[in-house]
Amino acid sequence: MTIKISIDCMGGDHGPAVTIPAAISFLKQESEAELILVGREDELRAELKKQHADSHPRLSVKNATEVVAMDDPIEVALRRKKDSSMRVAIELVKDGSANACVSAGNTGALMAVSRYVLKTMADVDRPAICSILPNEKGKPTYMLDLGANVDCEPHHLHQFAIMGSVLCSAMEGIGKPTIGLLNVGTEDIKGNEVVKATATLLRADHERGALNFYGNIEGNDIFKGTTDVVVCDGFVGNVTLKAIEGLAHFFKSAFRDNLLSMLGALIAYKSLKKLNPKSYNGAGLLGLKGLVFKSHGGADAYGFEWAIRRAFDAAKYNVQEQLSTMIAELMPKSTPAEAPGATIKQSSV
Amino acid sequence: MTIKISIDCMGGDHGPAVTIPAAISFLKQESEAELILVGREDELRAELKKQHADSHPRLSVKNATEVVAMDDPIEVALRRKKDSSMRVAIELVKDGSANACVSAGNTGALMAVSRYVLKTMADVDRPAICSILPNEKGKPTYMLDLGANVDCEPHHLHQFAIMGSVLCSAMEGIGKPTIGLLNVGTEDIKGNEVVKATATLLRADHERGALNFYGNIEGNDIFKGTTDVVVCDGFVGNVTLKAIEGLAHFFKSAFRDNLLSMLGALIAYKSLKKLNPKSYNGAGLLGLKGLVFKSHGGADAYGFEWAIRRAFDAAKYNVQEQLSTMIAELMPKSTPAEAPGATIKQSSV
C-alpha cells in the first residue's frame, strides 16, 4: 500500500534546505511512502538537484508561488496568500491526492488554513494540537491541547480526551490508553471549575467503558508517564510546553559553559539522547476532516523527518477513520454549537 | 540588628533531622539571626544534643505538641491541630516574637493557617505563592502565583504583579523589576480574556510610572530571564512548576542510567550546580500581615537552609513594610470584595 504525504517545503525557519533532505532520507527508510513536495518549483528543483534526487520515482513537486512567513498574521495566511505552499499542501489532502500533510510553518496559520480548507469533523467543536513528549517509562506521553484553544469549556476538554485517546491508541497500539486530566492536585476536589466539570464527563465515559480515565494528574506526571494521554486547555498546554523547552535549552546552555562540562555532556550523551526532543517532533492537528501534522519551526532535517514519520504512521494506522468512529460513538450530541472564528493560537508551538 | 525567624521544625518529609541541622548551619553564616525552633520539645532537644548545639545562645525552643502531616486536609490543620508546630510558628510572627516564619509543611495547610492567624493585608484580595527559578542570565526569576489561586480575575493577577515586583525589588535591589505576563504569545491580541484584561491594568500602571510592565511573555521566557517577575494564575503556575520539576527529575534519572553517563554528569557537575534547585528553595506567601516562607517538603538540610535565608533576607529588607506601602499606593480601591474561603491549593508546591 502506498501512502502519500504532502509536504509544505517552504515552512519553518529553514525551508527547502531542511525539508527536502528530510524527505529524501525518509523515502530511504520507508518504501511504502510517496511524497509530494509543495513550494516554489525552481527552489525545490534546485535543492533536489543539490541532493542528487531530482529524479526520485516516489518524489513529485507541486508548484505553489507564495510562502506563509513565520510571523505572518493569520489573516494574511488565510486571505492574501491563497497560493501558499502551506495551503496547497493542505488542499492536496482535501482533494484526496495526499493521505496526510506536514508543515513546519506558523502554527496559528496552519490551524486556521487547515480549518478553512478541510473543515472541522462532525461533532467536533474545535480541533486541538496534540504532541508527544518523552517520559521516564521510555514511552511517549500524548498531550493536548497545546495552544489552539486558550479558552475552553468542559465539553471541549472532553473532546480533546477522546481525540488524544484515539491518536495514542492507533499510533502506539494500546487498546484503551489511560487519560489524565492535568490539574493542581490529584484529589477530586482539586482544580478550577472547568477541570472539575470535565472530570465528571470523563468519569461517566470511564464508567460505561468508553474511555480509560485515570483521573487528575499533576505537571510532573507528564514526564513520569503516569498516563498515556494528558488533557489540558491550550493556554496551560502551550505555557507548559514552552516552559519545558525553555528548561531544556537552559540545561544545554549550562553544559556549553566550559570545555569540561561539554566533555561531561558528551560522555553522558547516550542517556541524554533518549530525551532527544527531535525524535518527538510532529504534532497532530486533530479534529479536522483530514490529517495535518505540524513540525517545530526550528527543526533540522533529522527532526523534520520525524514529523513526516508521524504523519505517515497516522495515515497508515487509519487515525482519521478511527477518529470519526470514536467521535460518532462517544461525543454527546447535545454539545452546544460553537461560534465561528473561535480563538486560534498564532505563534509556533 | 537581630532578626528573629520562627521555624516549624516538624514540617516537611524529614522533620527535625533536616530542619535543625539547617538552622544550626544558618546561624554560623548569619550573626544577626536568632532562631526559634518550634515543635515537640523533647524531639527538638534530642536532635540539638545530637548536633552538639543544645546551648546555642541564638537558638531557642518553643514547644508545640501537634504536627500537621503532609497529607492532612486543610480542615484538620485549621480546626483540629491548634497546637501544631506550623500554627505556633506562625503565631510567633503574629505576636511580634518573630520577624518571619519558615515551614516545609503542606502548602495548602500553611496558606490556610497563615491566612487564619495573620489575616490578609488591607487591599489584597488573595495571598499568592511566589517562588524563584534560575535563569540563563544567572539571576532569579520571581514567579507567582504557584498554586494558591486556581480561578483568578484580572484584579487578582494585577495584585500578584504588584506583590511580586515588591518582593523582587527588595530582595534583589532592583529599583523597578520588569514584569512579564505569562501568555501563549507576545502580541497584545494573544491569550484568554482574563490575561488580556490584566495586561490592560498593568499597562495603565506602566504608563503612569508605577510598575515596569514588559508585556506578554511565553513559557520559555521564564528560563531565559526575559523579565524579573513572571505573573500567572495559580493553576498555570502550579502545573508549569511541577512540569519543570518533572523534567528535571527525568534528566537526573537519565543520567543515572549507566555508569558512563553518571561519570559524564559528574564532570559536568560544576555547570549543573548553577541550576541547583536547592539554592532556589523558599517560596514567599505574599499578601499576609506577616512574612511566611515555604520550603519544599522534600528539601534536605542544605535546601532548607536556603529557605531560612529567604525568610531572613525578606525580614532584613523590610519586605512587609514595602508591600504595605506599594499596595496602599497602587491598589485600586474599587477592587470587588472577595468572598471568604476562596480556593486554596492543598498539595505541596
UniProtKB/TrEMBL annotation, chains A, B:
InterPro entries: FA_synthesis, Phospholipid_synth_PlsX-like
EC number of this enzyme: 2.3.1.274
UniProt superkingdom: Bacteria
GO terms for MF: phosphate:acyl-[acyl carrier protein] acyltransferase activity
Keywords: Acyltransferase, Cytoplasm, Lipid biosynthesis, Lipid metabolism, Phospholipid biosynthesis, Phospholipid metabolism, Transferase
Main enzyme class: transferase
Pathway per the UniProt entry: Lipid metabolism; phospholipid metabolism
SUPFAM superfamilies for the chain: Isocitrate/Isopropylmalate dehydrogenase-like (SSF53659)
Catalysed reaction equations from the record: a fatty acyl-[ACP] + phosphate = an acyl phosphate + holo-[ACP]
Compartments (UniProt record): Cytoplasm
Major subcellular location class: cytoplasm
Task of the protein: Catalyzes the reversible formation of acyl-phosphate (acyl-PO(4)) from acyl-[acyl-carrier-protein] (acyl-ACP). This enzyme utilizes acyl-ACP as fatty acyl donor, but not acyl-CoA.
UniProt similarity note: Belongs to the PlsX family.
Subunit details: Homodimer. Probably interacts with PlsY.
Protein name according to UniProt: Phosphate acyltransferase
Native organism: Massilia agilis
